[in-house]
Here is the input.
Amino acid sequence: MPATDLPFLIEAAEKAGDIASQYSGPNAKRWDKPDGAGPVTEADLAVDAYLLETLMAQRPNYGWLSEETEDNTERCQKSCVFIVDPIDGTRSFAEGSRTWAHSIAVAQDGEVTAAVVYLPQRELMFVAAKGEGARCNGEPISVSQRNGLTGASILATKNNLDPMHWRNGDVPAIERAHRPSLAYRLARVAQGHYDAMLTLRPSWEWDIAAGDLLIREAGGISTTRSGEALKFNNLIPQLDGVIAANPTLHKNLHQQLKPV
Here is the structure.
């Protein structure tokens, strides 16, 4: 139900921004998760608690998947599920940066149908609903139309450009950039500010679900690194990397990558 889900996702994201912004990133209490899973702050937990209560009150028959909530595989029996990252870019938040996002999505039968990526301290609200296009701050957005790899601006970490990942070790002559939040990277590509986004390591669903719909509704394609469609609400909520771009550039990127 993307048309009816999106308005309350937007409202919840705005309130989440108010909650998170009450905390001063460097002064917020912080813990390290077990097994090197990264940091979490009291702001992450406060936002997660708010979103869990608020969104599930709106749709009590939906499942719930969040980075900061202990997973319950009963969600896999649900047709619809919320997929949430309370603060995507926690390290950035904890350092006092403004570049972190709330990522909120609804997936139905494995496909994202409504999505919000909100950066409250940058005043950027990216939204999309299936079949209704993607917008930023109310204005329609679309992916870049650049087709060639040479000189293309691609959001990726340095290790993605290791020759081991590319056919014959031939790394394309791209212009690499980076943003700490995967959701924000996908949103910026959907907006056309960058030509593509690439991550080759396993990626958690909550980091990419909302951005996946933004890309698709902005005229692009997002797949795993092997070119398979992104399917969500898996028993193990990870996907094998992400490639996102307009259809032609996506094809060129995928063809240059070494098969896995």
Remarks:
- The CA atoms of residues 12 and 173 lie 41 Å apart.
- The mean pLDDT is 94.
- The helical segments are 2-21, 42-58, 90-94, 182-190, 205-217, 247-256.
